[in-house]
Task: structure prediction
Amino acid sequence: MTIHIQPRLTQVFRFVRCSYADGVAELVYAFDHGEELIERVRFPNAPAIPAGHQAAFDEALKLLHLIAGVSYYKAGVPPRLEVVGGALDDATANLLDALYLHGLAEFAYRNGLDLRGRIAFPRLGSETAANSRGAAAKPQAKVLGLPHRTLVPIGGGKDSLVAVEAIKSIDGEATAVWVGNSPLIAACAERTGLPTLNIQRELAPGLFELNRLGAWNGHIPVTAVNSAILAVAAILYGYDSIAFANERSASAATLEYEGQLVNHQWSKGYTFEALMGDWLHQHVAADLDYCSLLRPYAELAVTRTFAKLTPYFDAFSSCNRNFKILGPKPADRWCGQCPKCHFVFLALAPFLAKPRLLSIFGRNLLDDENLAAGFDALLEYQDHKPFECVGEGAEARAAMYALSQRSEWQEDALVARFRSEILPQLDESELAIEPWLQPSPEHRIPTRLQPALAFFE
Result:
């Protein structure tokens, strides 16, 4: 595809149209009046849209179009957003304004951009709202009578596998679902023993051409995109809940920059979960719940639970280098060099026998002096937390402190360094691991799934 624009000089990003037919959703975008960028999302073996569910499906598809546009908008970051289908009600505009601002905060930080005051989705005018209360006061969507079963997104790592086993523990009906074509994720999904659903997302080829022409590039809130895809899937295939596996640590910011919090995991955090869940209840179906089953728990509580799930030890991987669209993949499931490898190793170490942990990773990451800087960042020692899906700095410090008190770990290079160099600067009363193992009452887990929380006890 040939593109004839300079993305960074564009003035308008346009949400042109969206459509669905025969299991394929088409999402169309454009900069200014340039070439159309057409993304396709393929839903395998899609049934006919159930009778009476067309309006709900259309609303979910519209939101997918608006959310997935974040992948393209960031290429040019023009000053104006145009929704060809018409202005949005307040709830929709509020969700999108927040998602584009905070979900792209890391992208903006790394590119030296400030998106505050720049992102404003078109809203219904005050006259429309005054006359009809518009969609700003839209009542709750109707109950569709969706089947009592759950879509559980699988990412290949420990968190989603814990969520799967928690739901299986209450004999909940569930399907392991993922977007894309990762063999590693497919293998993990197969290992769960659940029915599987693999949805394909095909980015518009023009996006890669825009990148060649000097487009802005960087991190996007991909969990939000996948959430919108799964909302469409829930209506299409018939599920009353979407249960992600985002723990409460995901809500913690990575850093603060010029007055704005920057969180690599914003679309995995509680704020987005609440916005998305409320929007689905209001616009799509009153009985479609969107939640994270792990929300009450910190990373260390999740890893403690995962440490009991031995059948997954030879299949899971949280190493993000396995999931890049482009570039080389590690030769095995763990590269040993990235922040995810470092954090998962550190978080599992207090709860697994040392030989078992080393057999999973194939090496001892805490006995490699070359990895000191990486672990320092996890501890927020002389650096900020990495731009990755890792736990809080205080959480990592608690895990490292626990290891520093155990004879089998004390001689390892980075644990010894922690004891001699970092620990004297810390307050040991703040390093206990037990508080990180206690659940928080803040979550949006529907009543039907709450018995699964007993799995963590």
